[in-house]
Amino acid sequence: MWKVFSYLKAYRVAIGVALFLTLTELGVELLQPLIMAKIIDDGILKSDLSVIKYWGAVMFGLALVAFAAGIANSFFSAHVSQNYGFDIRRRVFEKVQSFSFVNFNKFPASSLITRMTNDVTQLQNTVFMSLRIMLRAPLLLAGGVTMSLIVNWKLALVLVVLLPILLFFLKWVLQTAGSMFRDVQDRLDGVNRVMRENLMGMRLIKAFLRRDFEKNRFEQASSELKEKTVSSLRLIEVSIPVLLFVMNIGILFILWFGSRQVSMGSVEVGEVVAIVNYSFRISSVLTIISFIIMAFSRAKASAQRIGEVLDTEIDLVESPDTDSSLTINKGAVEFKNVSFHYPESDVPVLRNLSFSVKPGETLAILGSTGSGKTSLFQLVPRLYDVTEGEVLVDGKNVMNYPIEKLRKGIGVVPQEAVLFTGSITENIGWGKEDATSDEIISAAVDAQIHETVEKLPNQYDTRVGQRGVNLSGGQKQRLSIARALVRKPKILMLDDSTSALDLKTEGKLLKALRTYSCTTFIITQKISTAMEADHILLLDDGAVEAWGTHEELLNTSPLYVKIVQSQFGEEDFQHVKGFKQTSST
Ligand code: DCP
Ligand code: MG
To answer: Which residues are listed as membrane-spanning (predicted)?
Structure first.
């Protein structure tokens, strides 16, 4: 957690200036009563106009100094706190970018968003407030006690005894409130989660008429946040009357003890009045301190939450025997006895897979839902690492490639098309940093989306809404294929990315893909697509059920035959069988 505050170090000069300016303001504040006394005693009471004029001018000058110091202090405080917030946001963002999937599973997106926004704001506010008033409160406190001791140490002993107890109490409040505010921030995550899911699933919610249900869900999360916040604030609010009550008892005691001393002649009345005066000032400072404590409790909770993100250990890193010169040249892929389970569960997802694909070949992967197809894909660009066995690319273990170079050579089209807010050009060009417009258009042509784009009102400049709301499922799929093609990858991986395409468009797409000299993995549910591939891998519950060409599988795999029959019907099945066999001879 302290690490989060340590980023303030970069601004030590500005912080020094801001604190110096606070001291200037404080100095003027402390001097003013003295000057006032001077004007009254030597000027007004003695009817000396020159004294009044002189000290009046000094007071005015000091007021100007305090005014300027206050404004300059605000300027520096804002500069420091805003830059500090900017730094933290950037660091958290960069850290999150380096997260592995396993890291991501630990922090829900909604929580990361709250941490990067609300938590950073809490820290910023506290830093700003600290620079504005933090020094004043303790200094006024120390000043008040010192002055009291000078005036009459016997009476001031009451304060010397009381204050440590009160400060101890405040420390307890800080700690307790800190953990309560931690809860508050976690509830805020909850509210953001419901809100995020709602906004993203708006269409579904309307179609399913689940508005009331979602409204209740939101209200529950929202009221939990309210309850937690109220009880945390209550603790702080209660602490102020407690402080004032104790202080008031102390003041009563000073009055009682003082009056006895006065009657015995050992203390002056003025001294009692002065000390009571200082005590009242100290009481008001304590109130300010409890506000500061509230801010600090919140900041502490927020700093913890940000610290958790920054301190997360990235578990998927370059292996020690990385060969920095390795890049994917040809695109051969081999799985050797690969087994895999997700780090957060023990259930095996892939079991002892072995197969190999030569450069330029196409492999179709079939298998029922949940059989491990997407999981298999993720092992090649090292989005996850194998549990056992090896994945080899061009004969080298993927672990030996620098992660960046490995992923650069692979074009992935995820199962669910993800698009970003921006133009079509930007979305396709996102796949390759320096893509030219020719490259973008040619990728779009091959992905069979060019004609559709040409018909749009602004063609390639058409804005894609958030997550591609203004596009059809098939259009989104083809755009994300174009985004992968523009990379000219050595290995292209399509995760059921043609599911929303009609057979004719899909045929054209597959034909265009053949002109790319890349190894292609296609996850598909359609036999018509699989038939065209060099190899078919039929997965069943994470294990290889069958491997071979369409013809081979027709003869060796009853499960494959069943799938073919279910998709084509008995009559067409015979036709497919015959057609493929004659066409391939
Ligand atoms: N699984 C998991 N944790 C994840 C992702 C998946 O435990 N983060 C489990 C769910 C499945 C199994 O792994 O039981 C295989 O999931 P896949 O996504 O690999 O399955 P498919 O891609 O084959 O299924 P679909 O055709 O539905 O996409
Ligand atoms: Mg899948």
So the answer is: 51-76, 133-150, 156-174, 235-258, 278-296
